Amino acid sequence: MRRAPAPGDRILRWHAPGDWNAFFGLALDNLTQLVILSSLLIGLFGFPPDLVLRVMVPGTAAGVLVGDLLYTWLAIRLKRAAGRADVTAMPFGIDTPSLFGIVFGVLGPVMMLTRDPLLAWKIGMGVTVAMGGLELVLAFAGDRARRVVPRAALLGSIAGVAVLLIAFLPALKVFADPLVGLVSLVIVLAALVGGLRMPWGLPGAFAAVLGGAAIFWGRALLAATWAAAPPAPMLALASPALALPWPTLAWVQVLDDMVPYLPVALPFALATVVGGIDNTESAIVAGDEYRTRDILLVEAVATMLAGTCGGVIQNTPYIGHPAYKAMGARAGYTLATGVVIGAGAAVGVVSLLVSLLPEAAVAPILIFIGLQITAQAFLASPARHASAVAISFIPAVAALVLIQANGLLAAAGKSAADLTGAGRETFQTLLVLGNGFILTALFWASALAWIIDRRLLQAGAVLGLAGLAALFGLIHSPLPSGAVFWPWAVQSGTSPSVAGAYGVAAALLLLLGARRAPGTASAG
């Protein structure tokens, strides 16, 4: 029964003090993504700074603005419908995997091939619009998928991403500068996990960043005044400039040029749909009953809008709703994040802010989010499905090792093509296991959960679908880009071999399931 609103509810209850912690976490995450995008395009591929900072970044941030505003509205609507004060908005922002995928699989290659930054930008816009269009179509199947797929699979597939990418990679930033990073990490854990009150009532995330930044710049000041101190960091402040994101159809001019890059881009759109379904289930477990279709529709609309306004990276609902809820956040943090990122990118404040915040001070917030998501996957799934959650980490491990291996090879002036013998064979195996890792984790965890429940026919059907997905490169693609393909278009025996293996495994489970007595088909 819906409770009558108390006086002041309409004004106060959609935001809370916990929104400050959540705002710093979500806003800093998005700020970091925009800086990484700018650094890669300008520093690595030679894009003109004006095109990146005054067109691509504001356009991409426009999607964040619209998505966060819509998620704020969805949270307020749910609060009123449920008569509850503790509804937390879904976090939203720039999709990290597709940022790297589009930069290295679309924008960078076009730039290197043509040396035409405008052409690369137009193709990037078109690809982003196409990704949003695919998400729009798939959004209407989201609720049904959430009801059919076991919870251990939905939560486990994002838990692997959480602990191995969201938590581990920032941990490298922490130990790259341990004086700053470890102090900030301890503050985050003490305030947000231990529940300790910070001095003057400061939000834990803000206190962590403030403390880390104070150490960082205090050390720099010491270096400037004392010759024996470590060298001071270089400070390069950006000059703010107004750059409003205006809609454009310039991408329509390059539709033919865009087509070859769709197989690289569309799997990332599919991955965000799967992730959106997972994240919605995560929010529901935490107590906020969002409709999967609504969450995915916002993602699709925001991504298409970003593309038509000059953006080149898709947006997505973020992993981390339970973590933000644990901070005490409601809907204020998404509203503030959308406004700060959208307006900040339009006036050039984004680069200015990030130049002042050391990475080691920001990274602990991401570690906390990764820990919360991983813990939830085990706690919210049936205890008997713990192995199903755990198995979903394996493909993410392969993806993590690939990221680090490619970085190390590039730092040495080498690439995977330079590997020989056992090294090349191991790298190719990692590539096959890591490509499409989110979808692979979903298949594996679903199959194992149903095996545990003695629902062998369903488990066999899942492995059959996995084999079909492998045949087209949706999972286990042997291509370095991870692109999908027609089976007859790739000169590699890897995909048919993997698909055949899944087929044999599926047939075995179907045979075992068919032999079981009708009354023993499920363990409950």
Kindly describe this structure.
The chain has about 525 residues and is an all-alpha fold. The chain folds into two domains: about 15-230 and about 250-380, no CATH class; about 385-515, no CATH class. Helix content is about 70%, strand content about 0%. It contains 22 helices and two strands. It has helices at about 10, 20-45, 50-80, 95-115, 115-140, 140-150, 150-175, 180-195, 205-225, 255-260, 260-285, 290-310, 320-325, 330-345, 350-355, 360-380, 385-390, 395-410, 420-435, 435-450, 455-470, 495-515; strands at about 90-95, 315. It has a two-stranded antiparallel ribbon with strand order 1-2. Helix 2 runs parallel beside helix 4, helix 7 packs antiparallel against helix 16 (about 360-380) and helix 21 (about 455-470) packs antiparallel against helix 22 (about 495-515). The longest helix is centred in the N-terminal third of the chain and has 34 residues, at about 50-80. The protein is globular and about 75 Å long. Mean pLDDT is about 85; it is low at about 1-10.
